[in-house]
Amino acid sequence: MSRVAEGVSPLELADYQKAVRLVLRHPLITPGYPDKTALATVRRWAGQLRTDLMEALGHRLVTTADTARLQRAQDGLDATRPALTRVGRPFDRRRYAYLVLTLAAVGRHGAQVALGELADAVAADAVRIDGLGLDTARKPDRDAFVDAVTWLTERGALTLADGSATAWAGDPERAEALYDIDREIILAVHHPTRVLQHLTSVTALLDSGSALGLSAGRAAQRRDQARRARRLVLENPVAYYADADSELLGQLRAPALAEDLERLTGLTVERRAEGVALVDTSGKLSDIRFPGGGTVAQAALLLAARISAAAQRQGRHALELLPAPTAAERLAARALRIDAALPSRGLVAELAEPDQEPVNEEPAYEASGDEGRIPGETRYPFVTDSWLRGRLKEITAEYGAGFAADLRGDPDRLLGQVLDLLAAMSLIARVDGGALALPMLARYRGVTARVRTRTAAGPPSQTALFADDTANETAEDPTP
């Protein structure tokens, strides 16, 4: 029997699970973020949450009068949860740099700070970093800086007392903004579990088997592997058995995993032949919803159906099979890229070229037939970049009337965003020259769509409607 939430009565279990989902979805909760009721909900269950989150996941919950901060035990480098700008776009490196420098500058001010004064302080630090800088005479720099300030404002670390940041970004000579500083929230925003100055690699921020200084020994190792397995299922769209080592595989297959996670979160664990997934039909825990609205999500769903159909082909039309990068290989590739930006004699070389194209994070594979195949290695259908471009061109021709004009006119950008979304959902693995179709993609093999046409009465409503004919499959049936 699961020991998770054992002190919670059946009548209160739903409320407790809501608090769990809140703190897992928002690792920093303040009086106004993500809403005005969240902090009270979490504080009500703070004691039980601290016990269960540590026991089940190895996470540490720290609460103060005005904050609830979840210190996660991290097993990998997750690129799917970026900070977002005022218009909902992921932060680039420049904005992340401004955010860090803004936190440092705010710590040197009193109870209030003017936006222009804060910009000058950040600019004084940024100019010492080769290739960064902050020139308040440049509109792009002002916009990037205001995005960083707004991110802190949304969480309550800064509170607008007077003026307008948007007006300042438009014309700093005519406009200003004044902010109150909440030091308690500032400290909660930046709460590292390591001494950052001592790190030589980003991987030192991760928690391996004995995370958080837990005792050694066989029993403790099994407990840590169980925590790692729960984290893997909780924090990823699907945990594939083929990507797990032998000890982790045993924990993923254990019945206790589903019992613990379902009681902790109130969600359903679904098992298939290739892996296990936590199903969030409410969307209250997931940071990415798929299928979803918008051009990228709709194009991704249609492309997923075409990739899945191609992967089902047999005989001479069958796709080439290639191995997917392992979790260790993906981690090593991402760590290598991030570590390249570590300061060297005070210089951050990566920031010197902020507009360069991103490097493919996945290692390349060159294989044909069974040559070089490792015994027991899992291989997946491979589709080339040219094939993907061709299918997206067909999708745009058929359904593009409902797509956003800027993306419809930039197919390479649209394809890149579509593939990023599919990879984030563990439906494909991006490799050199194309992508691999992963098992969960088969869930979307029966997608159909239609575009609503414009009428004389006004613009169309939703651009497309989708139906998934696999939605009623039973959890016991393995995904083909």
Helix tally equals: 16
Shape: globular
Number of strands: 15
Major sheet: arrangement of strands: 10-11-13-12
The helix fraction, in percent, is: 25-40%
Low-confidence stretches: 209-215, 345-375, 458-480
User: What is the assembly state of the chains in this entry?
Assistant: single chain
What's the alpha carbon Rg, rounded to whole Å?
24 Å
Task: Give the overall average pLDDT.
Answer: 84
Strand fraction equals 5-15%
**Main sheet: strands, sense, barrel:** 4 strands, antiparallel
Q: Between the first and last Cα atoms, what is the distance in angstroms?
A: 32 Å
- The structural class is alpha+beta
A few lines on this structure:
With 480 residues, the chain is an alpha+beta fold. 39% of the residues lie in helices and 12% in strands. The strands form five sheets. A four-stranded antiparallel β-sheet has the order 10-11-13-12. The protein has a three-stranded antiparallel β-sheet with strand order 1-3-2.
Structural features, described:
With 480 residues, the protein is of the alpha+beta class. The protein is 39% helix and 12% strand. It contains 16 helices and 15 strands. A hairpin with a 3-residue loop joins strand 8 (268-271) and strand 9 (275-279). It is globular, with a radius of gyration of 24 Å. The two termini are 32 Å apart. Mean pLDDT is 84; it is low at 209-215, 345-375 and 458-480.
